[in-house]
Amino acid sequence: MKQQVPVSTIMTTSIIKLNITDTLTKAETLFKKNHIRHIPVVNSNKIVGMLSYTDLLRISFADAVDEDDTIIDSTVYNMFSVEQVMSKNLISVSPETTIKEAAEILATREFHALPVCKGDLLVGIVTTTDLIKYLLEQY
Fold first, then answer.
1. Is Electron transport among this UniProt entry's keywords (predicted)?
2. Rounded to two decimals, what is the model's pTM?
């Protein structure tokens, strides 16, 4: 297996992101429309948090609603802001970080996505799914 492959080779670069002032209703729409589980949250393009679909499930009854259903419990979502629900204790990596290093971070932490940044600028996201796909390509 290749040892020094940078995370930039497997990261997603067409990033779907939320602004810190966006609503949770918008977040759920983005999750469902794009079939994703993690959305970076930015404030003036600077990464400030990560929102996961699991974060939304914790505050709503969304897990009891059929995934194809378009009904959103806006009452619950209006009680909270993106900033209140998102994870703020982020670890980001640079595009030059090796895939092995990213895998080690994800394997030892409680999250499943890492923002990829050049300085303060968000340039990508790498998820456990990206890592699994990379691993499968090695066989």
1. no
2. 0.85
